[in-house]
Amino acid sequence: MSASEHHRVGVIGAGISGVGLGVKLLEAGIDDFVICERNDAVGGTWFEHTYPGCACDIPTHLYSYSFARNSSWSRLFPRQEEILEYVRCTANDRGVMPHIRFECEMLRSTWEEDSGHWRVETSRGEFTCDLLVNAIGATAEPADPEIDGLDDFGGHRFHSARWDHDHDLTGERVAVIGTGPAAAQFVPRIQPQVGELTVFQRTPPWILPHPDRPTSWVERQLYRLLPPLQDAQRNLIFASLEATGIGFRDQGPLIASIEALGRLHLRRQVSDPELRRKLSPEYRFGCKRPIMSNSYYPALAADNARLVTEGIERVEEDAIVTVDGARHEVDTIISASGYRYSRSLLVNRTTGCDGRTLGDVWGRSPRAYLGSTVPGFPNMFILLGPNSVGINSVIFSVEAQIDHVISALETMERRSASRIEVRPEALESFVEWADEASAGTVWTDGGCRSYYLDEDGRQFAIYPGFASEYRRRTRKLNQDAYEITAGQGSPALTG
Asked: The pTM is what?
């Protein structure tokens, strides 16, 4: 890349979001775009996350692009390798691959007011673009727990999102810090292998029975010969998840029935009363991200496993010390403590028109109109930004935002515009609505503290309405919400 290289659209990230956007740009007749990917392959999360048991918790028919059916899924819930192959095939088959620059990490993106475009510095040089789309996702950067002495640990240590496959856990004393979805998937895989397994739990997750199973040859043939059947299955799953959202919002009988199922699942799988007590959530289902697993509870109940609920005070060279003074000697520490959802590399590497970074503007709470656009950052869109992800498939949210980007490009083309920027009042109205819609839900009043909330307790992650409503709001650009300028320095056009 060179400073003279210019594109109509620059995209950061070649995961599910970036590849999906590439497909839709080509379908819209826009072929002047480049996708920067820091890895040497497509896939994003599904390329980087390779821990044992890594899989999706959304059924295959819904966790796929609506424009790229796959009748060959081997299971109801796809595993990492199969999802990665699906994304790779989509990028290849739909002509996106030639637009991707691999091993090309975005180092800084800066809006240049004089020229009216973005300058993007990467590990392979720099380029400029008219429109910038950040598609790095919410799980781009693992977050290690903030524990005294963790960096001084003398044994082996890694994060589940950067699994060290070269390190043999056989017979080791292994500590796992965190009990989220990733831990629920890899703990049962490593438990039979390790010598001693100690899982440090801050809050017990809600865990439901997992309905995963292999898809039969007959099913796959029917989906191949009769695609509408697969669409019907997709719509049925979508509708059931939309209905679950009602319970998340009113915390009524629907949530109570799911909680009863979770408690029954715990009683059936854990016979020890003390362990069952430690694993019993005291907050509403959905307050934290729920988990489905048939093997996590049995793994914790195994003879070589221990569940520690006392808080961690510090880490020593060969042990983890809890607040009760107990020393838990370990050889390897695996962090399963989540990701920097609100403080990804997007934040401090993106500078707007007034010289402030996105992190400066967001401060303690990320905010974006429809989860996509921020005042002071013209010609920039975010995929899977704040308050954009529904409880449905994340791909559904991505496709909705991609529609928003395409509609913006088409609007700019139709009106010969060079600049589009969301109005501050539009953002404030959306944030006010999102805060009101979040009040009283399991996300804000469910009795727990989750990554959905910012430092002040504001729910900034989930779109608090229905996914179908979000799709409707993003399908066509609301021009009244934007200041759209025709030509360099021309006055703003009205909607």
From this structure: 0.94
